[in-house]
């Protein structure tokens, strides 16, 4: 396996996010229409979706797989690394079977899972509705939504935050606990550590603009895909639809830690990934796949980030990190859900 030039310390990377159990089902167009869901989207469930989950459970075959954007990325990252517990994860779950499944899968992957447990609520779930090659996500956060900053005040957890040198938080967590995000972001800036986020979904830029723009000055590396970048551009009145221009403008937005410029990484499905590094634009092609190899793109973006992180936290340059991101995404796409073969065969 790939090994860096130095031994990676335990807890080098810390992630925070919504631990969700994905309920994956293949549905018909009529089902999406009935519940007002777009073919390709990621939304938060509201009260109107409770009945949708019930109907799905009654009328469709559901496969349960561990999910949650940040936790997926961390599982993939840890899969690529040689030793367990290089990665720590915070998020909130209930005290139920779903939480056990999530903890077990993430731990098996080697992630040091430190959940905040709220006994009075259920563990979050995410409807993953597959229709043709499309995928509609509907997240019912439940316990994940009850995460509080108190979790960071627990002595053991304080130590995890201090020990880490890199932080990754998908934008979805902006809907849950901005104070926790800001605490970690400021710690990173004060100690010249690397703080990374993901635009996560168009609705984050559209409806959570304020917490997003408060966190952004602390972001050293920002990930996203083309539609998320477009939503960000619109929310910030960028007056351009060109992905390279948008990425460049995001990189140029104000930054607290002036010791390094902001890196922006925008994936575009099978099109090249756009990277802004030190103000310069780079393009990195993806690994081409045939139609037959393309099984399920769910989790491609998370896997890409996981692969990127695995190399980046070992001190590798961005170009090497992108290469590993493409490898991870390509692997996950060729299986159902955000899953991978037992052994990682990555050759840097
Ligand atoms: N059709 C494809 N062929 C080859 N690689 C792909 C394809 N789709 C996605 N990938 C890989 O996955 C990466 C991320 O893809 P994409 O931009 O679709 O992310 P995303 O939309 O955030 O993913 P998600 O489906 O998880 O929301 C790409 O940069 C590439 O490495
Ligand atoms: C658990 O969740 C409930 C319901 O949202 C909330 O009122 C309560 O404050 C949470 N408890 C803790 C310890 O976070
Ligand atoms: C920025 O870099 C300088 C020199 O490398 C260092 O002395 C300083 O502590 C860094 N700033 C922060 C916020 O760590
Ligand atoms: C980008 O991600 C969103 C979810 O945030 C998804 O709906 C969309 O299909 C993705 N775009 C591409 C080109 O993969």
UniProtKB/TrEMBL annotation:
Pfam families: PfkB (PF00294). Its EC number is 2.7.1.20. Keywords: ATP-binding, Kinase, Magnesium, Nucleotide-binding, Nucleus, Purine salvage, Transferase. GO terms for biological process: AMP salvage; purine nucleobase metabolic process; purine ribonucleoside salvage. It is found in: Nucleus. The keyword rRNA processing does not apply. Residues 34-341 form the Carbohydrate kinase PfkB domain. Belongs to the carbohydrate kinase PfkB family. ATP dependent phosphorylation of adenosine and other related nucleoside analogs to monophosphate derivatives. This is Adenosine kinase.
